[in-house]
Each structure stands twice: as C-alpha cells, then as structure tokens.
Design a protein that fits this description.
five-stranded antiparallel beta sheet, alpha/beta, 19 helices, five-stranded parallel beta sheet, OB fold (Dihydrolipoamide Acetyltransferase, E2P), BrxL_N, 21 strands, P-loop_NTPase, Rossmann fold, single chain
C-alpha cells in the first residue's frame, strides 16, 4: 500500500495494477495495447470488465471477415480494434489497408495516412472506423486512432522519479514492464535494464544469445509500439532500409528499435544487405538509390545458444558467423544464460506505470545526451569507447532520468558497460587472435613452494635457501634447470626468479654465482629487479 500511494502521488493517472492484465483474452494482443485500454477505463478492477467487453465486441481477429462484411452491408459502418497495415499499389497509385479481421478483403485508405503515421506501413494497433459505400461497393477507412501515449514534456516524469530511491525506482521500473523484481538478483536487474537500453539510446546495437524461454523479445515487443520484430525469413535492403520502387522508408528509418528474432533462421546471404548494415551500424547512415539517409534505430540480434562458452557466436547464421567486421560494430553481448526462464513467479502483479506512458517517456529521453567522461585502459579503440559511452548513457537515462546520479554509481555502471563490450571483444579474439589480441591480464607464473625447492637442491645449499626464506624472499619460479652452451648441457642452476638465476661456482655466465655461505643481502640486492 505504501508503494501504491507513493506511485499514485508521483505519477497521478498513470498507475496500473499489473495483476489486472491476467485475463486470458488479454494475451491475444500486445501488452501495451491492453494497458492503454485499461488505463483509459480507469485503471482499477472495474476497468477489467469494461476492457474485456470492449475487446469481445471490437477485437474479432481472423475468421470473422464474413460477419464484419455483413455488418457493413447492413449499417454501412463498423468500428473495431485491430492491427492496420498499409500497402502501396504502384499499378493503381493507391494505398490499401489490410487488417487480420477482414482477411484479404481490400480496405481503401487515404494517401496521407502513411505520412501521419509511418508505422502503418509495417503495422500499427488502434481503433478503426470502417465505412462501406454502396455506390462503389468498396470499404474504406474512416477514422484511425492509434494506441500511443504522447507526452507534452518530460518534466512530470522526471519529477516523479525523484520520489523514489534508486532501489525502489529500479524495482518500480522493472515492475512497469511486467518483471517481478523480487525474483531477481541485483545483477539480473541490471541485465534486464540492459535489454531496455535500445528504447532510450539511439543507435545502440546489442546481441543476446542464450537458452529458450527467457523472454528475449518479451520486454521490447510488449513495451513499445516503436519496436518491430523481424522473425526469421529473408531480409532485403528494400525491407530494412529503403524501397526504391515505392520510395518508402524501410524498417530501420521507421522504427526506434528493430529486433531480429531467431537470427539463426534469418537469411543473410545477400552481401548487399550485410554491407549496408555494417555501414549503418558504424555511421548511423546508409546509401540507397543515390541517396544517403540517416536513421537512429537501435538493432537487437537475438538467438538461441545452448553452450555459453566462447565463441558463443558460432550459432550465428551464414553471412554473419565469423564476420569480425559485423561483430566489432556490436556494442554489447548480453550473457543470455544469466536470465531466468519466464515463469508465473517472474511476472509482476503489483502497481506500476502504465507501459505505454513509460514507453512515451523513454521515447522522450532518447534524443537527450547523458554523457560523462569515461577513462578506459590503453589499447582500447574508438569503437570500444563509443560502445561504453552508449551503454553508460542508456543506463543513466533509465535509472536517473532527472540527471541526479551519485558519482560512485557511475563507476559501477561503467564497469558493467565495459563488461558487455569486453564480451564482444572476447568473441573477436577467438575468431581472429592476430587482429584482436587478448586483453585479459596475464597471470604471473606460478612459484614453487619452499618445501618443494629444498628437496631439489644439493644438500650443502639447504641452509642458504632456508636463510633466504626466513629473510622474506618469495619462493623462485623454477628450481634447478639445465644450462646449455653450444647445444650441450654444462651444469644446472640452483633457482630462478624471472630471468635472474642463482648458480653454483663456475657458471657465472648464466647468473649470480653463490656459495653455501654467500650473504643473503648480496642475493637480495641481485634479485631486487626481478622480484
């Protein structure tokens, strides 16, 4: 109750009990559509029955086209809820709409609709008014009201965030997108926020490969109407970038996030697609038909992988597998095996933000710059730096939209961002170690134990080496080793620290000659540069 009161005071009119969307009929349409309708109906238990009846009356789905046509013939008008997709007919120079409830029956739409709502070229949910003209015997689209929330400004959202602590806000944010934070560790919460990052940061591209049923597409698909999912099949420059015949933009210039789901089942054999894709991922621009166009869509590549050990990208399809130029343009690789399976316990059922309001706020944060100085180790490239900055910016926008973050938290988030990029680099190293040498710090060579060394030494040197041990010197890395000259063994050393050896008399060319009574201080002075 305390959380509900705080939430309603911070975001009046935008709070919904997520337990209300458990009705079976609600699973037939995207979550953001259901929550949009529930919020418009009051957002309480009474709203469930209203929305349920509304969907029963207005959302029919495939298989009802004859009944709808009967109603149009009788009354000349019918209103329904559905997903509208507009197609361009070049032969007639007209636009035709398609909705699942009408099957393949053509629906005339006005030309300006695609300009007012570009998303209809790929499908948008909304309330549609269908009109039948007995004279022409055609069905045309009257009014179309898409299910989208629009904010006049970010100030109320930013002000509402200030009512929560960071821990409360993280849980509230996850609850708003339907994830139960109580079922997650702190690291898993951060990983879920990383899945949301493309919604607030333009041109942020990530790859996630992991087990099935972990909800890879769940968050983005159900949070924002600005996320489009490509589920397998063949991709082409016309679909993704720009259709030169219809002169219409493709998915990437139209949507904020384009998700390639089941990437192993998507055909990437067309070299021109991959070439344009790499250009876009690097520069945010692409060229088609003599034109250079810019876009801000973030790209998400998702796939199934049973084995989490590198190189996990071995499951990528032909055309992408082993392509280091493509992989180097990926800003982060999410560890898919760390996400839990989606179970009823993972779904949140308490009060939280209406998801379409949250999506509108995230859309408003997208063009803003949340930048902080980052200092990476030497040897990191501009792509590494750019990737870390993008992740850091996205996480700050999600956690601190009001721009008031503690300095200590920035370092933690930067380390997480660096980890996501380092996972990409590890894959690059596995594929081409010559071009991408390992950046993991080399572990110091193992040292002997003093007890083991004493057993290898000549008996007369036992006292000397016991004195070295008592003086606090670390044990050597190696005990006695063969010493050679011109390919033949001339004797054995006593011990080696790094490149510095202690040798018996007569072998001074290979190290420091020592006698059983050599002063410890002389040996320490010799070894100081090698310890």
């Amino acid at each position: 109750m305390v959380l509900l009161e705080k939430a309603e005071q911070a975001f009046p009119g935008h709070i919904l009990d997520k337990g209300l969307i458990q009705e079976e009929i609600f699973y037939r349409i995207p979550r953001y559509v259901v929550e949009y309708l529930l919020a418009r109906m009051g957002g309480h238990h009474e709203a469930v029955e209203k929305v349920r009846k509304l969907l029963e009356e207005r959302y029919l789905g495939p298989g009802h086209e004859q009944w709808i046509k009967d109603q149009l013939l009788r009354a000349g008008r019918f209103v329904l809820i559905d997903r509208l997709e507009v197609q361009v007919d070049l032969q007639t120079g007209t636009y035709r709409g398609r909705i699942p409830s009408l099957g393949e029956h053509p629906l005339e739409v006005r030309p300006r609709l695609a300009e007012e709502h570009p998303g209809v070229l790929y499908g948008m949910w909304g309330t549609l008014e269908l009109l039948y003209d007995p004279a022409t015997r055609r069905v045309r689209l009257g009014q179309f009201i898409p299910f989208e929330a629009h904010l006049k400004g970010l100030e109320p959202f930013q002000r509402g965030r200030q009512a929560f602590t960071e821990e409360e806000w993280t849980d509230f944010l996850l609850g708003s997108v339907g994830i139960n934070p109580e079922a997650l560790s702190e690291r898993q919460k951060l990983l879920y926020l990383a899945r949301l990052a493309p919604l607030v940061e333009p041109n942020l591209h990530y790859l996630e490969l992991g087990p099935r049923q972990t909800g890879k597409t769940y968050l983005l698909r159900n949070t924002s109407a600005e996320a489009f999912v490509v589920s397998g099949g063949k991709v082409s420059p016309a679909v993704l970038f720009y259709n030169q015949l219809t002169r219409r933009p493709g998915l990437i210039p139209t949507y904020e996030v384009v998700i390639f789901d089941e990437i192993a089942h998507t055909a990437w054999e067309d070299p021109s697609v991959i070439s344009i894709l790499k250009d876009y991922m690097e520069s945010g621009q692409f060229s088609r038909g003599g034109k250079t166009l810019a876009a801000q869509a973030s790209l998400v590549f998702l796939g199934n992988a049973d084995d989490p050990t590198p190189p996990v990208t071995r499951v990528l399809p032909n055309g992408l597998r082993g392509d280091t130029a493509f992989l180097d343009r990926i800003h982060g690789l999410l560890p898919g095996h760390e996400f839990p399976k989606v179970t009823p316990e993972l779904l949140y059922q308490g009060p939280a933000l209406v998801v379409d309001y949250l999506a509108a706020a995230l859309r408003g944060l997208r063009p803003l710059a949340f930048s902080v100085e980052v200092s990476l180790p030497s040897g990191y490239t501009q792509r590494d730096i750019r990737a870390v900055r993008k992740w850091l910016s996205a996480l700050l926008k999600l956690l601190y939209p009001h721009r008031a973050w503690p300095e200590g938290r920035v370092k933690e988030l930067m380390d997480f961002a660096l980890e996501l990029r380092e996972r990409v680099y590890e894959e690059l190293h596995r594929l081409n170690p010559g071009e991408f040498p390992s950046r993991k710090p080399q572990a110091p060579p193992p040292r002997l134990e003093w007890a083991g060394l004493h057993a290898l030494l000549p008996a007369e040197y036992t006292g000397l080496f016991q004195a070295l041990q008592e003086a606090g010197l670390p044990p050597p890395e190696e005990g006695p080793e063969d010493l050679t000259e011109e390919g033949r063994v001339i004797g054995q050393s006593l011990a080696r620290w790094g490149q510095k050896r202690l040798v018996p008399p007569g072998l001074g060319a290979h190290g420091l000659e020592v006698h059983p009574d050599t002063p410890v201080v002389d040996i320490r002075t010799y070894l100081e540069g090698g310890l």
